[in-house]
Structures are given as structure tokens and as C-alpha cells.
Write a structure and sequence with these properties.
Elements (H helix, E strand, L loop, with lengths): L5 H4 L13 E6 L1 H4 L3 H10 L11 H12 L4 E4 L7 H6 L3 H4 L18 H11 L4 E7 L2 H10 L4 H29 L5 E4 L12 H18 L3 E3 L1 H5 L7 H8 E2 L6 E4 L1 H15 L2 H5 L8
Parallel strand pairs: 1-2, 1-3, 3-4, 4-5
Antiparallel strand pairs: 6-7
Helix pairs in contact: 4-13, 7-9, 8-9, 9-10
């Protein structure tokens, strides 16, 4: 088994390494937000909803970085539950406007107007050299829209997948291109998908693999680092995908929620940490960026 980096083997430039800076910027969808459906429904019903109750993987990752590298960080989180690659570009964040027929706004971790991509680019430009890492989780809702439209029929999904892959490639390239232009030297980490429809759609893992190949390829083109969400969640307990999903997502609860459990979000934080390359800073505490 080769240890050659696929980006280097293909002649593509290596991913950017940038040691942790004053800010970490979290972008994307419900995974970046830290969404858990039953918790949010309960909090909204009893009036106790606050975004800080949803640390997701972002806060555990910040804690890992701070503890292991001795570098203090401030989190800025623009992630928007329900976001697709299209809505991330076009805006606004529907979750922050009116969501699921509830008829009133729900606050994000950090508010912004317009599109999430525009807000992220503006933040990076206003804080040049002060942001790393940038974490991105986007694309799951693009695939779920197809699966839901097909009522989880895998033949239908397979037929519709090429158009979804083309759209993902084009729009994610626009997103990462915008981020990279605004922050040429910033480390960007891009989460690939786990498979939340494993139970209802046997054989769906191969299709998720095709999506992940596109996400990883686009990430590498923009010198970003892919983060293996499938290994973290679906393969978290070796040899038992069912047990993995029941442990690291909320699929086996009464709500059959596809979002990660607290343990699952912690697993994703560890996956981001492993992909970051920041382990070198624990061995060499005075190392600096762009190594």
C-alpha cells in the first residue's frame, strides 16, 4: 500500500498547512452548526434555545487545538442548518429566517446578512493572516435532496447522481475558490460525507463514495485538506456499521435523526484534527505556519 499523497502523485500542489491562528472559521450546514433534531425541538418548545447549546464538532476541535498546541482561538461559526452548495453561494440562510414552518427566526452561532460564502469571504479579508483553520461541511443536503426525491430508491438515485456530482463539483469549486482567493495561505479542511441512509437504502455506501470522491478532488484542487467523515461515523466501530451508526448518529433514537450524537461530533472533531497536520505542533511547540 503506497503512502504517496494523491495530490503530489498527480502533480497537484500540496494542501496548505497553516498553524492555528487567532480565529477558527466554521462554515457549512447542520453538521458545522452542531444540529440535533430532538434537542432543538425541545429547546424551541420550552423557550430555552441558544446556539451555544450546540457545540457540534467545532467546539471540540477548538478544544483539541488549544490543548494540544497551546494556542488560544476564538470560534466564528457561520454554519447554517439545511444549507446546500447552491444556498451557500446565493443565500440567505433560511434557518436564520423562517425554518420548518415555525414562523420566527432562529439565531445562528454568528449572524450575518446575505450568503454564507459572501460573509465568509468578507471575514477572511477583514482578518488576513489571522484565521486558521477554516472548516467546511457542505454537500450532504445536495445528496439528501436527490435521495428524498427518489424516496430512497437506489436505481432512481443512481440515475440522478451524475447531475448532482456535476453540480457539486462546480459549486464547491466556486465556494473553495472564493475562500482560497480571500485567504491564499489559510488551512482549509473539508468534511466528506458519512452515509446516513445506510439503513433504508442498502447499497447506498457506493453512491456516497462517488460523492466523496468529488468532494475530496475539489478540495485538493484548492489546496484544502479532505476530512474522512465516512470513516469517522460509518466505520467508527470496525466491522459493525450498524453499531457505528447507532453510536455515532441519532438514527437509532425514536426520532431516527440522521445527525451525529455527541459521541459522533467528537469523532468528527478528531477526524478534523487528524487531517489538519497540527500533530507536528505538539512535537515542535514553536513551529510556525506554511511548513
Amino acid at each position: 500500500m503506497s503512502d504517496v499523497d494523491p495530490a503530489r502523485a498527480s502533480g497537484a500542489p500540496p494542501p496548505v498547512f497553516d498553524s492555528p491562528k487567532a480565529y477558527t472559521l466554521a462554515l457549512g450546514d447542520s453538521l458545522g452548526f452542531g444540529h440535533q433534531s430532538a434537542r432543538i425541538a425541545s429547546d424551541l418548545a420550552d423557550g430555552t434555545y441558544v446556539p451555544d447549546s450546540y457545540p457540534g464538532y467545532v467546539v471540540p476541535l477548538e478544544q483539541l487545538v488549544e490543548t494540544k498546541t497551546q494556542r488560544d482561538q476564538t470560534v466564528v461559526n457561520y454554519a447554517c442548518p439545511g444549507e446546500t452548495t447552491d444556498s451557500m453561494i446565493a443565500g440567505p440562510c433560511a434557518f436564520a429566517q423562517t425554518v420548518l414552518g415555525l414562523g420566527y427566526p432562529r439565531a445562528l452561532h454568528n449572524d450575518y446578512s446575505g450568503s454564507q460564502l459572501s460573509a465568509a469571504v468578507a471575514f477572511l479579508r477583514a482578518h488576513r493572516g489571522k484565521v486558521a483553520p477554516v472548516t467546511v461541511s457542505i454537500g450532504a443536503n445536495d445528496l439528501l435532496a436527490l435521495a428524498d426525491g427518489c424516496q430512497q430508491d437506489m436505481t432512481c438515485v443512481a440515475q440522478g447522481l451524475p447531475a448532482v456530482l456535476e453540480g457539486l463539483d462546480r459549486r464547491l469549486s466556486r465556494i473553495l475558490g472564493g475562500l482560497r482567493t480571500a485567504a491564499p495561505d489559510t488551512e482549509i479542511l473539508v468534511l466528506t460525507l458519512y452515509n446516513p441512509i445506510y439503513f433504508v437504502a442498502p447499497g447506498s455506501g457506493a453512491l456516497v463514495g462517488q460523492v466523496n470522491a468529488v468532494l475530496a478532488a475539489v478540495a485538493r484542487r484548492h489546496r484544502a485538506r479532505p476530512v474522512d467523515g465516512f470513516a469517522a461515523i460509518n466505520l467508527g466501530i470496525p466491522g459493525d456499521e450498524t453499531a457505528s451508526l447507532c453510536t455515532f448518529t441519532l438514527l437509532c433514537t425514536a426520532e431516527a435523526d440522521i445527525h451525529p450524537s455527541d459521541a459522533g461530533y467528537a469523532r468528527l472533531a478528531e477526524a478534523f484534527w487528524l487531517a489538519s497536520g497540527y500533530q507536528r505542533l505538539t512535537r515542535h511547540p514553536h513551529a510556525h505556519s506554511h511548513a
